[in-house]
Amino acid sequence: MTLSPDTEEIVGKKGNATSVVWRWFGYGKHDEEQSKPVCKICRRSVPARTGNTTNLFNHLRRHHPSDYTESLTLRAQVCPTPNQETGKTTTSPVSMLTGAILFS
């Protein structure tokens, strides 16, 4: 992880940013290939190859716990898990921690 210069503007991800984690990450304005995501909170560069957001979530968990908790809440709203007993959609505690979608 490296620090991004404090003066460089951080811009959003180009294209379709489907993960909620992109609320906390972007790219340096001069990173036209968008190859090095930067945390909008602490301006650290976090490696994330081929669109994989695991390292981004791990960065939030380790360095910004309250933001990580918020990201889990948002993630659960976007990816709820179905409950076969009631037919209603609920969020499993395991899916909140792992990001997994569980089917009974």
Q: If you had to describe this structure to a student in words, what would you say it looks like?
A:
The strands form three sheets. Strands 2-3-4 form a three-stranded antiparallel beta sheet, with no helix packed on it. A two-stranded antiparallel ribbon has the order 1-5. The chain is globular. Helix 1 (54-63) crosses helix 2 (65-78). With 104 residues, the chain is of the alpha+beta class. The protein has helices at residues 54-63, 65-78, 93-98, and strands spanning 2-3, 10-11, 25-28, 37-39, 44-45, 81-82, 89-90. It contains three helices and seven strands, in the order E-E-E-E-E-H-H-E-E-H. Pfam families: zf-BED. One of its GO terms (molecular function) is zinc ion binding. Keywords: Metal-binding, Zinc, Zinc-finger.
Low-confidence stretches: 89-96, 98-104
Number of strands: 7
Beta fraction: 15-25%
Strand order of the largest sheet: 2-3-4
Radius of gyration from the alpha-carbon trace, in angstroms: 16 Å
Average pLDDT rating = 79
Distance, first to last CA: 39 Å
Largest sheet: 3 strands, antiparallel
Q: Based on the structure, what is the oligomeric state of the protein chains?
A: single chain
Shape: globular
The run of helices and strands is EEEEEHHEEH
Helix coverage percent:
25-40%
What's the tally of helices? 3
SSE-based structural type: alpha+beta
Keywords: Metal-binding, Zinc, Zinc-finger
InterPro entries: Znf_BED, Znf_C2H2_sf
Domain BED-type: 16-71
GO molecular function: DNA binding; zinc ion binding
